[in-house]
Amino acid sequence: MGACWSNQIKSIWSSTTVNSSSEARNDINLSGSSSKVSSACTIPQQSSRSEGEILQSSNLKSFTFIELRASTRNFRPDSVLGQGGFGSVYKGWVDEHSLTATKPGSEHHLIFWYILVIQAEINYLGQLDHPNLVKLIGYCLEDEHRLLVYEFMPRGSMENHLFRRGSHIQPLSWGLRMKVALGAAKGLAFLHNAKTQVIYRDFKTSNILLDSDYNAKLSDFGLARDGPTGDRSHVSTRVMGTHGYAAPEYLVTGHLTAKSDIYSFGVVLLEIICGRRAIDKNKPSGEHNLVEWAKPYLTNKRRIFRVLDTRLQGQYSLNRVQKAAHLALHCLAKEPKSRPSMDEVVKRLEQLQEPGGTSGNAM
């Protein structure tokens, strides 16, 4: 599970008091490095093993709490990158060669996530190896302290690029949006095609992180579940996730399938096209729900431009926009069986990539 870093590596971590038996929602956004990860591996079945047993059987680096405390300047407020239901996220530094925590100040860094409920993250990210999944580097399991160490993604989340406004924020070009969509799709396809299928269950823009070259990586596996096995068609589970992204059949029945993730992907693709949030109560009446508002426009070639992100300023191919919109509609099909597989989504997005690559081109 090697990763390619230069010099020292910056990190981020988080603290919490969540009950380990609960399925509390985690809305923390992690920002991490552009480390490249190679090849895939089999995802293990979730088990009833203790945190210590899970961690010790992984290939992750074990850090002491003293090391990580020093790396974040004693958890100083200016080291905090975010807050969420499972705790706070801090930035810190780790040496690239020894993977030991070091003093702040280097150019590259990691993520330290100080958290109590860690089994899901370890069961998945601790064993996964793919370029479009955020890299889990190590952990701290010491007394009451629970911390996870991730690679740092310098360009933050797709959510910030799409929805934050300000003179310092440059809107993403159409080409970069399609590049991010493809990377995220490849991450989901990898999970769905694993020997033990994984259903992500919380696919949204805040969980898509970007490295320095705008390569997308999925983060936050707190709600991930193993997919159905044998002759089972679904997994029955308590309904969890984020309002506006969950598939309608999952909300009604609690039946979880890979098609649930594909619906969520359709919502995110729509956000990428429109530059609007899935749910936005600040919009006029009738426009609060993005899917309900946008669908009628997406099916009409003459009206589709009315829902496009105005910040694109016409810098796009209408033909490619139409194809992306049709793909979003396909993913949002009411009947789960009518939705495409993630493999098909990847193939269709590959056809929408701009010639010559799109890295580093914001508008």
Automatic annotation (TrEMBL):
<feature type="domain" description="Protein kinase">
    <location>
        <begin position="75"/>
        <end position="352"/>
    </location>
</feature>
<dbReference type="InterPro" id="IPR050823">
    <property type="entry name" value="Plant_Ser_Thr_Prot_Kinase"/>
</dbReference>
<dbReference type="Pfam" id="PF00069">
    <property type="entry name" value="Pkinase"/>
</dbReference>
<feature type="region of interest" description="Disordered">
    <location>
        <begin position="29"/>
        <end position="53"/>
    </location>
</feature>
<protein>
    <recommendedName>
        <fullName>Protein kinase domain-containing protein</fullName>
    </recommendedName>
</protein>
<dbReference type="InterPro" id="IPR011009">
    <property type="entry name" value="Kinase-like_dom_sf"/>
</dbReference>
<dbReference type="GO" id="GO:0005524">
    <property type="term" value="F:ATP binding"/>
</dbReference>
<dbReference type="InterPro" id="IPR008271">
    <property type="entry name" value="Ser/Thr_kinase_AS"/>
</dbReference>
<dbReference type="GO" id="GO:0004672">
    <property type="term" value="F:protein kinase activity"/>
</dbReference>
<dbReference type="InterPro" id="IPR000719">
    <property type="entry name" value="Prot_kinase_dom"/>
</dbReference>
